[in-house]
């Protein structure tokens, strides 16, 4: 997990990792120790506008304000990692 959000089960923007897109493929090379050496999980990719709230305790601290796209189309977590 990113050092800036160690308990959040998501990469906010793959900080510090090169993202390569080619055709319908997205590749992000992440050292296995950064994902606790696990390789049996599924994932999806989402582009969205998120907002950080620091003033209204009744609102979430981090909120998705608008979703632009979802790689699978339906956020079904159909993708798996490939060990190289």
Give descriptors for this structure.
two-stranded antiparallel ribbon, about 80 residues, mainly beta, single chain
Written description of the protein model:
- By secondary structure, this protein is an all-beta fold.
- It has one domain (19-80).
- The protein contains no helices and 6 strands.
- The protein starts with 18 loop residues before the first strand and ends with a strand.
- The relative contact order is 0.17.
Brief rundown of the structure:
This protein is mainly β and 84 residues long. The protein is 0% helix and 33% strand.
Count of alpha and pi helical runs: 0
- Calculate Rg over CA atoms: 14 Å
> Outline, from the CA principal axes?
globular
Secondary structure: helix percent? under 10%
Mean pLDDT: 79
Largest sheet: 2 strands, antiparallel
Proportion of beta-strand residues? 25-35%
Number of domains: 1
Beta-strand segment tally: 6
